[in-house]
Amino acid sequence: MATAFQNISEALESFLFCNEEVKRKSAEEFLNQIPSADFTGGIFEYLSALNLRKPECNELAAILLKKQYIDKTENLQKIPQDILQQMTQTLESTITAERKVVYLKRVFEILVKIYTQSNSSDNLINLITKYSQTTESNIKKGLMYLIEISCEYSFDDTQLMQNSSKISSIFMHYLEDKDPLVQSLSLKSLVTFLNSIEDENNLRKFSDVFPLLISKCVNCLKADEESGLTSLTSITDLIETHPKFVKQITNDFLNLFTEILDNFISAAIRIKALTAILTLCATNNAQVRKSDVFKQKTIFSIMKLMAESSQLSLEEWTEELEDNKLSQNDAASAAEETLAKIGYELGNKFLFPLFAPLIKEAVLQNNQWNVQCAGINAIAYLAEGSKEICKQEDLQNLVLMIKQAVHNNQENPRIQYAALTAFSLLAAEYTPELQETMAKSLFRLFLKFRKYQHQTPIQSNLINNKLLQRSRRQKYTLKFQCRTYFVQNISYFLIKYYQYQLKIT
């Protein structure tokens, strides 16, 4: 080995804590060449470093042992069986309550990889059983991760079914744990177990578990945000992986996700619930179309959430709009984007009539700008495909509603922004009807917006029109980006208008 450091422990210490860049770089180079310099000696030095006093050092030792020896197939296959056995014994001896969860995860990853490579699934089951009765919270969390990665990367259907009773009993026990994070991780691990079962006949044996997931998810949501997010992500994964088995409880899931939109403050939780609703629409669209929960509750909740745009200051809105981050951080913007995507999955021909009375009420019967803005945005995102069911009179009413909202909110750039988005997308859908009958009045309206160009979103990009340069499938994605370029929508409308003029001359 290189002589810059006496051993791996010294190099780890320098890499993590030394303030001198040159020495840190030297430590990194020393650690990177360990397997080539002393293959076997390096293994034992890393194993020894797992017991260093500073947790940062033993965590990095576990990471590098995995990266240099376990993740590289050629290196893993070079390790003699007796040394592999020593490795597993040493690694298991470090699984204690004092260790952080991140360390335990790395150790379990190494053990799963070793046992899987040597076809020792029995050893994995024994390891799972060994720690299943622990009372230590950190080990419980690590154990749930061990079961999760074992199901995902090691066990096949036969092994899963052979050990299903043992693993299921652990899930049931941990789903009742007093620590909500343990509950949510248990739910996540259970979902991974179900997702790993490929044979439908085997999966049917666990059909009774699916309704249980909803009640456990509710418990996690009530506990804290981290547990709630973990649980919602797991449920969404299950819906996507096994849509056939979720079919019978689609209403229950819709009810859960809708309640989250209505009753939770956390933007992250609500955005995750919107993702779950969209996943249901994509995987079980026929069931969602039939669902009274969707038609009588969910659409109202989405519309209500879209109207919460007033909670975001104009400054924040402007900044995040520039960075394309609105739907990532703001629940109201995420609801708008989700509505557009739901329309793509269920068809706006189905969706538009459901939202029509809500749009009318929002734009014409409410004095709050944010509610009117939600109605205009709903028009914009449901425009594509609406021509099949809307008459000329309906189009005129839509345009008049938008113009009325703009007139009532002449000093509000967000209303104008929404209006331009709606007009540009309506112009694309209703060609040539809109150009024939309303172009001049809309041009006059657009000219009034020029005095607001000092607002950051309402400027530049006067002739930039990315939407027209893409295919129809790409246009579906770029439709959301269209909102990032305020005046781009004017140019889009103008192009549509002049395309029509060229056709008739």
TrEMBL record:
<dbReference type="InterPro" id="IPR011989">
    <property type="entry name" value="ARM-like"/>
</dbReference>
<keyword id="KW-0677">Repeat</keyword>
<dbReference type="GO" id="GO:0005634">
    <property type="term" value="C:nucleus"/>
</dbReference>
<protein>
    <submittedName>
        <fullName>Kap beta 3 protein, putative</fullName>
    </submittedName>
</protein>
<keyword id="KW-0653">Protein transport</keyword>
<dbReference type="GO" id="GO:0006606">
    <property type="term" value="P:protein import into nucleus"/>
</dbReference>
<dbReference type="InterPro" id="IPR016024">
    <property type="entry name" value="ARM-type_fold"/>
</dbReference>
<dbReference type="GO" id="GO:0005737">
    <property type="term" value="C:cytoplasm"/>
</dbReference>
<dbReference type="InterPro" id="IPR041653">
    <property type="entry name" value="Importin_rep_4"/>
</dbReference>
<dbReference type="InterPro" id="IPR057672">
    <property type="entry name" value="TPR_IPO4/5"/>
</dbReference>
<keyword id="KW-0539">Nucleus</keyword>
<dbReference type="Pfam" id="PF18808">
    <property type="entry name" value="Importin_rep_4"/>
</dbReference>
<dbReference type="Pfam" id="PF25780">
    <property type="entry name" value="TPR_IPO5"/>
</dbReference>
<keyword id="KW-0963">Cytoplasm</keyword>
<feature type="domain" description="IPO4/5-like TPR repeats">
    <location>
        <begin position="123"/>
        <end position="255"/>
    </location>
</feature>
<keyword id="KW-0813">Transport</keyword>
<dbReference type="InterPro" id="IPR040122">
    <property type="entry name" value="Importin_beta"/>
</dbReference>
